[in-house]
Amino acid sequence: MVLVHSHTPFKASALRYLASSLSITLCAxxxxxxxxxxxxxxxxxxxxxxxxxxHIIWRSGTAAGFRNRTLLRVYAEEDEYILVGSSxxxxxxxxxxxxNPNRVNGQAANETIPSNPDFTxxxxxxxxxxxxxxxxxxxxxxxxxxxxxxxxxxxxYQAPETGIYYxxxxxxxxxxxxxxxxxxxxxxxxxxxxxxxxxxxxxxxxVTVRSSDQSSTDDLEGRLHTFLISxxxxxxxxxxxxxxxxxxxxxxxxxxxxxxxxxxxxxIFGSQLGNLDSDGVSPLYKDVxxxxxxxxxxxxxxxxxxxxxxxxxxEIDNAVLPFLPxxxxxxxxxxxxFPPSPILPVxxxxxxxxxLSGSASTVNTGGNFSFDSNLLGVYQIVISxxxxxxxxxxxxxxxxxxxxxxxxxxxxxxxxxxxxGDPFPVGSFRYEIQTHGGEYHFPLSDAENNVGGGPxxxxxxxxxxxxxxxxxxxxxxxxxxNGTIVEDRDPDDGNxxxxxxxxxxxxxxxxxxxxxxxxxxxxxxxxxxxxxxRGNTNRRCDEASSFGDTKTLDLWTYxxxxxxxxxxxxxxxxxxxxxxxxxxxxxxxxxxxxxxDDGPVHGIDSSLxxxxxxxxxxxxxxxxxxxxxxxxxxxxxxxxxxxxVIVGRPYSLSDIPVNNTTGGNATLHAWxxxxxxxxxxxxxxxxxxxxxxxxxxxLSWTVPSDASAGTTYARFRLTTxxxxxxxxxxxxxxxxxxxxxxxxxxxxQLEAFLPVPxxxxxxxxxxxxxxxxxREQLFDDSYVDVAGDPNDNEINWPExxxxxxxxxxxxxxxxxxxxxxxDTTAISGVTVRPGDEIEYTVSFLSNGDAAANDLLICDRIxxxxxxxxxxxxNLAPRYTGGGNRGIxxxxxxxxxxxxxxxxxxxxxxxxxxxxxIGGYYFAPGVLPSSVFSGIDCGGxxxxxxxxxxxxxxxxxxxxxxxxxxxxxxxxxFRVVVD
Length: 978
Hints:
Layout: H1 9-19, H2 23-32, H3 41-44, E1 55-63, E2 66-69, E3 71-76, E4 81-86, E5 95-99, E6 119-120, H4 133-138, E7 155-158, E8 163-170, E9 201-202, E10 205-210, E11 224-226, E12 229-232, E13 243-246, E14 254-257, E15 265-268, E16 275-276, E17 288-289, E18 303-304, E19 311-312, E20 325-327, E21 333-336, E22 347-354, E23 360-362, E24 367-373, E25 377-383, E26 398-404, E27 408-414, E28 427-441, E29 444-445, E30 456-459, E31 470-471, E32 478-479, E33 485-486, E34 518-519, E35 551-553, E36 556-560, E37 564-571, E38 574-576, E39 601-603, E40 608-610, E41 645-646, E42 650-660, E43 666-672, E44 685-690, E45 696-702, E46 710-719, E47 739-740, E48 744-753, E49 759-768, E50 777-778, E51 837-846, E52 852-860, E53 865-867, E54 885-891, E55 894-899, E56 906-907, E57 917-922, E58 947-955, E59 968-977
């Protein structure tokens, strides 16, 4: 609630009059009591302090990218009183406004201030004016006027809720003015300017929190804070000796002693990153050089991070911490609450992943560092040239710094170069990773002079291994991430980075030790500029400008984590693949092969190769015009050509030549792009272990039934590295791309074909006059190998059920019977005469890459013979149907005598045969094509002597010797010699 003001000037005067007789007693009591301590200008300019006074500013416009004003914040609990006053209240438009919690929003130092405050000091007529130094030092009297009567009479506001309140103090120029405050600044620390010419400045000001007791004089200190102090000293040659108390979001508390800083008009604030590089994100750890006192148009596109940390005017009251807003480095509010104690930074699991996998990379390529951090904040990675010196300023080292927006796993990329842009050479290099706890940057924006050195940092609530007064600066030249060189003061010496930037009175040295820092409490720390009222030209690098003029000088401190380190390896000679890679990404015929596409690359090691050897490459060869897809590099010699791929069939490569003399096991990784999409996928992968001293390896795949026909590519990678596929994307197997520290990669072009059926037919005479006592000749145990016929040598014929003497020893005993060795040669030792019955057996085998569907086997009755249409009438088994049976079939482990007509006499539906199997005899003059469209039975177009046809429907292709049972069989018929 807001208390209705009853403390009028008349009543106050009367009360003082009535209390005058008690003044001696009250003073005596006061001498023995705890001194009253308000919060405000008396803390920045305390009694007995050296130096000069500065005025806080509330002025329209911006400076260094932030509002040129001081918005105060104060924590108060419900029903406590906020007491305020200033030297500008009731001076023209001078006033003080208070806004309840959450009324003011936006980035710190760029907040949006509502037009309707919750409290206005001038509404309490006659209160809130600080008239002199004594009242400033004494602070506010009690609300009821009974206590601390030597203080000023405050405006007061009772807090309706617990939280952070916003206090806006306006000088006589009011809320929205651009008037200069320069001429109104009272430099004497023991005097105030209480006149109208304070303009946009305020000489004395106070914000005090007390309990709900209106008679209380007990100040609740450590509540008042701000995120930016805009201060004006009136001119140079005046010295600021204030003490300030910032806290970081990870709980580190500091005292900052300004120690006689000599600015003119400047801003005080703190952040985690300080000045920013040209990307607007990366910490610069250098100074920003602007063109004027507002730091406009800084060189190289640099900038300053917005205020991020609260600055208190006394040591902090812990009750405030849960209510403090947390801002990230962009100034975005991300939460509420600061820890009461500092959180120590810890780095774990450091590793480096190069383009050669593992910790190896090629020259000038770099890779990624990975580690875990228990805190968000700043990391620093130093790659040392000699493994001993980890100084970030060493030009032969490389330092990587950046911001971690969240705790947990981190990844940082490196381009393989040192600080000067030269590549790290071949070798093994150690790196160390640290994170920063309590990192606090205190940019000095347009602070022209600092002849007294400092400021002094003191860590208040922890122990820094570098010292509790340690601080860092680097005022030298630099190159931004966008390539702009911000030159030092003497670029003509050939090194634009080794000296301080322009300006009179440069610091010496231009930078602290960037690993160890420096003791900020020494008299020589960070001394720069000129003494007296000099050096403020507000022009970039003007010959009369002091060193701090038109710059935002960065000064920082932090507590480093223990270093976590490891080693990385840089190799020179490498081997790339050579599958086509014609554009970024991948697609049909466009594989990830080139370095820019993260193509496979191996560090060359003669102890681990495919084939006979390997030569180094500078990148992938992707012409794809020779047998192995490589028009330039002829060292892919593991294969001359690869055998064709048949879709849906097993694919094997045996005795692949390798050479492993590494002393341990290696792995041969291999892919065939079966779907021809320009990517090697995990489903297309096979591997083989290659033991030490091995000279060959074997691989096999099951080719998918939906694989594509046409030209495709295979990739082979031999390495001892443990390649892995992260499984995040099904499209690309990460093992097929990226680097390996040893071995070789070879890519090959090959052809894939759709499977086609192929029927092998072998016709033999198996008997003459079978079953007749007269002239019976049986040839079941005989075989004639026809040299010109490969069909009788196919290994997928099944073994016979009886022992047999096989002619050449290379055929399968399933095939029996005799024939002439060619079409014109008579069968040796066999004679026939009219009336003899000759038995023919036609063995068939489905030996293609695919099933033989809708299969019809037709054979013509030989000339000078007549079909024996009842040859098998007396044989069993028989199925339905009548009439003579002149065709015998063995198939799928079944035997049947078939009728000569389509009368339903069939083998019933069997595996893969939907319509059953039937036999047919076509008498002379009747064409088989009259029943079976498209069949020609020898191609003569006539049927002069008769023909048989067996409808086998569908036969699966053989998968091995005699497998499956329905992939083979035989047909038997007999003829009588005319």
